[in-house]
Amino acid sequence: MEIVTPTTPNAVNAESLILLDGPLGTELNARGVGTPLPLWSAAAIDTHPQLITTIHRDYAAAGATVHTANTFRTQQRTLGASWKRLTHRAVQLARQAVPSSHRIAGSLAPLEDCYRPDQSPPNSEPEHRAMADELASAGCDLILCETFPNPNEALVAVSCAVRTGLPTWLSLTAGPNGDLLTPQALAETGRKAADLGAQAVLVNCTPAGMMLRWVEALAAAKLKVPFGGYANAGDVTDRLGWADEDTAAAEHYARYAGTWIAAGATVVGGCCGTSPRHIAAVRSLHQQR
After folding, report:
1. Does pTM top 0.85 for this prediction?
2. What CATH fold (topology level) applies to the domain 18-287?
3. So where are the chain's domains?
4. Closest to 160 in 3D by CA, of 108, 84, 103
């Protein structure tokens, strides 16, 4: 599918919508595999590679065409000497799991806690450059700088990713309470990222029920690049995900996603607590429009 930037909120159609996959970490949890910090989902690259492949395949079957490799926590800072091997292995697992026409995104994450912008290192450029170069070497189709709450570190990461020559997307987070970035700050960072060469600007890992404000801010910013979002399932009591087997949970999430699409989003997926069911529900709902 081609990325098409709509000229009006209702100009998005089934051909122009790009469906991302959903999370790998919380889906590993849902399928019985622990993901303790600091390695989080990276440990499963060695311990449960077949399950990682299965999850990628399930997202492809659900309709996703852009698949994020399990590299969110494969930086040298976290893994030490094994970081390059595991980064390459994560990309290979994604690549072998999905159709050749689908794209593999290398996840480039904040160096510290993605909900603690105050912990961003003052000089993150060397580490982000090394990770971006390794993702390019591993054979990714694009680099997804994702879950950044700190605008300065986000822009450094984008610059490093763009230098590789690969298409670069940026996704910022307002956090689980929606208080880490205002819609205006997110949109302004998105404008700067697009000026640096980012080819899409997204918002992620913010509760689905809160997301519309940030998506609308991206729409109002007139970025001249595609925009969108992939939300988390919010609080467990919201009954939107977190291993909830009720089909209504995925459909509820899809209805939220429909509001982002109506606002002009052309790139949509799922974040923590969602699953292949949620991606399938978004696809189904959008096809009915």
Report:
1. yes
2. TIM Barrel (3.20.20)
3. 18-287
4. 108
pLDDT category of residue 12 using cuts at 50, 70 and 90: very low
CA distance 4 to 285: 19
**In whole angstroms, what is the distance from residue 176 CA to residue 213 CA?**
14
Tell me how far CA of residue 78 lies from CA of 71, 82, 224, 254, in angstroms.
Answer: 11, 10, 36, 34
- Sign of the C-alpha dihedral computed for residues 29, 175, 249 and 17 taken in this order: negative
Extract the tokens encoding 53: 């492949």
In this prediction, residues 76-84 reach a mean pLDDT of: 95
From first CA to last CA, the distance across the chain in angstroms is: 17
Question: Which tens digit of pLDDT belongs to each residue from 98-147?
Answer: 999 999 999 999 999 999 999 999 999 999 999 999 999 999 999 999 99
- As a whole number of angstroms, the distance between CA 183 and CA 109 comes to 21
Residues constituting the chain: 289
